[in-house]
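A favour, since you know our structure tokens better than I do. Go ahead and set the record down below.
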Amino acid sequence: MVKDREPNYSALADRCGLNSNKDEKEVIEGIQALEEEYETDNLVLIYNYFLANCKNPRLLSEIIKCSDRLRDKSSLPYLVDILLLKSENSEEINRDDYINARVLAAKAIANLKDTTAVNSLLYCLNNKNENYKVRFACADALGKIGDRYAVIPLIDVMKDEDEKSIYIRESAASALGMLGDVRAIEPLVNILETKNGIIDKFTFLKERVLEALGKLKIGENQRVFDAVKKSLIDESPQIRINAIEAIMESENPDAYDTIKPSLKDSDDEVKRNAIIALYNLVGRDILDEVISSPEYSDFLKIEAVSMIDEYESDSEDFDDE
């Protein structure tokens, strides 16, 4: 392994065939082999040089993956440059490859958790002419980085009725949940209230909104709690499941009584999630009640017995330790 000697970056690029007509698989193998030859500090510098000089988007994607494994903040400016690449002028055959490289760059930026990248991520997210995959990755990255400067821009994206991609609005809602800022509560609830009873394309948006609310402190806000509660009768079973989970996490004193009617839901998966949520809230008592009461379905009784078997098995394993 090479130590204490600065690599000759240009020579290494030529050796690997970075911008040659060499078979891509062979080039990738050569790049990966560098990990056995150089220590981490030198590898970071090599990958940074490659990130700045590679012209092949498929190879660039592989280099981003290598750089991401090391997660050194010195790579950030190179990753940002790739994120901001414009693929519109590239050959048609390479356009998707450039988009994939930029998506990977956004994910690698997220893993560095450096707030100096927030403006670049917001620039791509807010550009409605940008590829939706890149915008989606940028929204996710903003949530993972955790900078509250991104809260208001993400709220604006989520609320934007003119946004042509509902997926972008969903990703903004998810990012707001990751950020955990209370400023997001009001606009998230507004989405639930205005889209109440609307299905089809807004179903997934409501799912993401409920997931986000579940990560926020909603138990002490009665309006929020009531909005989530209404989602328990939504036409979409997945919306009802997400509402159960959000209520379970709410720490609201009425959570148990609010979820309990869902044990009689028409959908088995909703019933399954309801009994799991109630078990998490009060323990085995709810399982015994379901098994002994004639008002609950055979499906739910089987679920309760299965959960008891699992519970007792876990308890025995714990006692044995």
Remarks:
- Residues 54 and 60 are 6 Å apart (CA to CA).
